[in-house]
């Protein structure tokens, strides 16, 4: 008995040590980013240095981001607007598509699911040229890039039904059938019964949709090309590297990265419990 406890304690100890080391390795770049964002601009002109702890702590980089010299606030708000609209609309679309595929049986259902699965294996940038010219016809590029990016993100969101459908599959169909016998419509069953029981997967879908616009660079730079007022933060900060003064923008780049991480981090930390439940619940059935 003691031998089993000893082996278990040793195994747990090794696991904890491994996880601690892995966490340190994973968090180290973020710690560096955070510390360098508070380095005074007077140290090496805001460029890269070989030491980690700043010699002089300062808010110079953050002040510059919120000054009239920088358009960072506008770019930040552009990204936040896109993220909010995409999160709401994409979640609605994914929930509706997933519920239909989970509960309804119609001709071509299996083919549609397989077709979307195969289509999702192709990288999205293959359609960039077609999408760009399509958006251009409706004035949704450059000056209209923000609604254009929202439209593209929402229009294809139904293909990401896999996890949400899996979660709906775990909810007994007997509930739907009982409500239908009592005279409830499909819509009423969905909104009054299924949605209240699906809080984890709703939060999971909303969080995933909210995070994507903050990382969108390739297509966003393509749609907003040449019109700086329509940039999101990923495109805008990449443009700083093209100025030929990367050294001068280094601490500002770090400060911008910290500000970008704030909304996603807060949401994830507050809703982490539901996020995990949504992922695990949606992985039970396919």
Q: How would you describe this structure to a colleague?
A:
The chain is mainly α. The protein has helices at 2-37, 60-65, 72-103, 109-119, 128-137, 145-155, 162-170, 173-181, 186-197, 199-215, 218-223, 233-241, 246-282. The longest helix has 37 residues, at 246-282. It is globular, with a radius of gyration of 24 Å. The two termini are 42 Å apart. The model has no long low-confidence stretch (mean pLDDT 84).
Question: Gyration radius, to the nearest Å?
Answer: 24 Å
The helix content is over 70%
Number of strands: 0
Largest sheet: none
Percent strand equals under 5%
Number of helices: 13
Beginning-to-end CA distance, first to last residue: 42 Å
Low-confidence stretches: none
Overall 3D form: globular
Structural class: mainly alpha
N-to-C order of helices and strands: HHHHHHHHHHHHH
> What is the residue-averaged pLDDT?
84
How is the topology of this model organized?
Blueprint (H helix, E strand, L loop, with lengths): L1 H36 L22 H6 L6 H32 L5 H11 L8 H10 L7 H11 L6 H9 L2 H9 L4 H12 L1 H17 L2 H6 L9 H9 L4 H37 L4
